[in-house]
Amino acid sequence: MLSLKRLILGVAAALWLGVGVAAGTPDSKQLEAELQGLPWKQFRSVVEAVPNLKADVEQYGSAGWAYVKASYKTYGWKKNIDRLSPEQKSRLAELIGRAKAAK
Question: Which sign, positive or negative, has the C-alpha torsion 70, 85, 45, 38?
Fold first, then answer.
């Protein structure tokens, strides 16, 4: 029963994110919007869990994180997300879904 509930919640989260089974790779624009909609702490934990996104921020040191904190809701993340592999985009979608569920 619990696994059925998890399956249903997982499918609902995937559909809500616009990630269908047949869709393959999640849409970068949708991922950007979902990422920007997270509160700061959840946003940062998601970005830190995706090595390429984390590296994009950390290349500027602590000033990078300060800038991101001030502007993450309006900064154009699509370009950075576009550079991710399909597997990394799927992982990002999964992390965003988990963060939203944990709100």
Answer: positive
Q: Enter the tokens of residue 61.
A: 């040191």
Which DSSP state fits 41? H
Q: What is the pLDDT of residues 31-86, one digit of tens each?
A: 999 999 999 999 999 999 999 999 999 999 889 999 999 999 999 999 999 999 99
CA distance 97 to 94: 5
Domain ranges in the chain?
2-101
Q: What is the pTM of this model?
A: 0.73
Question: Comparing C-alpha atoms, which of 56, 74, 78 is closest to residue 65?
Answer: 56
**Contact between 17 and 26 (Cβ < 8 Å):** yes
